[in-house]
Design a protein that fits this description.
Layout lengths: L32 H8 L4 H20 L8 E5 L1 H4 L4 E3 L5 E3 H9 L6 E5 H5 L8 H15 L14 E12 L5 E11 L5 E4 L3 E2 L3 H4 L7 H19 L5 E6 L13 H12 L4 E9 L17 E2 L7 E2 L4 E2 L4 E2 L8 E8 L3 H11 L15 H13 L17
Parallel strand pairs: 1-4, 5-9, 9-10
Antiparallel strand pairs: 2-3, 5-6, 6-7, 6-8, 10-15, 11-12, 12-15, 13-14
């Protein structure tokens, strides 16, 4: 079906991108096949990933510090490195990842990078999308990283700030494992985002459970920091703030870990008149069925007595007259909400936020960008040491 795989229109001044790819000799830097093979011959997988990261980072620095600097740096990763130098398991069971480490290290020069795999370019990777779809995805991501806005969200408030919060584990300056309030990401209706990381804190899984929560003071500080960064970009404080979290919000019954009060107080400190919605989202095992061969329609919203509301962000899509997935879709549910909006309004926004991934040209991702990118950003931030700078623009994490 041509609607599912439209022809690529090209990326130049005469197409819908209305832009051009411009390069310069001073922005070219090439490492030799011998350098790559010396790395691939190392016995230690950790050393291979570290050396590959060092090699590519050196070349990125040469380009990023040239004057004038480019808008985006393309990093072509050869097969000889991809085969044995992309991921390594550390002693503590965590992973060292070449792609994420490169994004983390290159932030300090202020030029986002776009990684390209050799097997993707030549079409030898099994399960690859067709050439046109690959071109659309590459061009869309590149266009956004260079400062363009591919589209704006339908059904999202122009004066609303959408925030996703997650957690991740890292090390402090002394090498001790600590938890960080992973990421607070703030998005507007154009998909423009800012990324903030919270302060490190200790969390005892055995005593307090597997799901981390913020202390009231940390929730307050993180949300203020996020909204102030958002305000610097938009130049106005948001009239409405929506916070998405994949775990429930702790309240006064948890003493110092009163996240609810912390979020409310932090938002009111920036704009005391702002409308507020704090929403806990998760996917549910409850399924709906419909007559015929396809699952429920994308956008189906159901209130079932004794359960939480269901939101189908994947499903049969009338525009394409088919279901775009291969597995039975899992609907989302609103586990908990605090604030001014109803379930249906919040569900409508969740659906709209699944279309805001400007890292590709897909019809929708099925996961609201507030949660989808908080996980991606957390993976990159794990590779950012305490002394390394953190960029606020989320194009550095894509």
């Amino acid at each position: 079906m041509k609607g599912l795989t439209p022809d690529f229109v090209g990326m130049n001044a005469d197409t819908s991108f209305a832009t051009a790819l411009v390069s310069s000799e001073r922005w070219h830097s090439t490492f030799t096949d011998r350098e790559a093979r010396l790395i691939s011959d190392l016995q230690s997988e950790v050393q291979r990933v570290e050396r590959a990261t060092d090699l590519m980072t050196d070349h990125i620095e040469r380009i990023a510090t040239a004057a004038p600097a480019p808008d985006v740096i393309l990093v072509a990763m050869p097969q000889v490195l991809l085969e044995g130098s992309t991921t390594a398991t550390l002693r503590d069971g965590t992973f060292l990842n070449l792609r994420r480490a490169l994004k983390a290290r290159s932030m300090k020069w202020g030029v986002p990078i776009q990684l390209i795999r050799e097997d993707t370019l030549i079409g030898k990777n099994a399960g690859l999308q067709d050439k046109a779809t690959r071109a659309w995805n590459f061009a869309t991501g590149l266009y956004f990283k260079a400062g363009g806005v591919p589209w704006r969200g339908h059904g999202l408030g122009a004066d609303t700030c959408y925030i996703g919060i997650t957690f991740y584990q890292t090390e402090n300056a002394q090498g001790r494992p600590v938890m960080r309030s992973g990421v607070a990401q703030a998005f507007d209706y154009l998909g423009q985002g800012v990324v903030l990381r919270g302060e490190p804190f200790e969390w005892d899984v055995d005593e307090m459970g597997r799901t981390p929560h913020l202390m009231e003071k940390d929730a307050n500080a993180l949300i203020q920091k996020t909204l102030n960064a958002y305000q610097r970009i938009s130049r106005l404080p948001p009239k409405r703030v929506v916070v998405h979290k994949s775990s429930r919000f702790w309240g006064s019954e948890h003493g110092a870990y009163n996240e609810l009060e912390g979020f409310y107080a932090g938002i009111e400190a920036v704009n005391r008149d702002a409308s507020i919605d704090l929403v806990a989202l998760d996917q549910t095992k409850i399924r709906l069925s419909r007559k015929g061969q396809y699952p429920p329609v994308r956008g189906t919203f159901a209130m079932i007595e004794g359960t939480y509301p269901l939101i189908y962000t994947h499903g049969f899509t009338p525009y394409f007259d088919t279901y775009l997935g291969v597995h039975v879709p899992e609907p989302w549910t609103i586990l908990e909400k605090h604030g001014d909006s109803g379930f249906r309004e919040l569900a409508t926004e969740v659906l709209a936020l699944t279309k805001m991934n400007v890292n590709n040209a897909s019809f929708s991702d099925g996961v609201p960008i507030t949660l989808a990118f908080s996980r991606m950003v957390s993976d990159v931030l794990k590779h950012v040491g305490p002394e390394m700078p953190v960029r606020a623009e989320y194009k550095f994490y894509m």
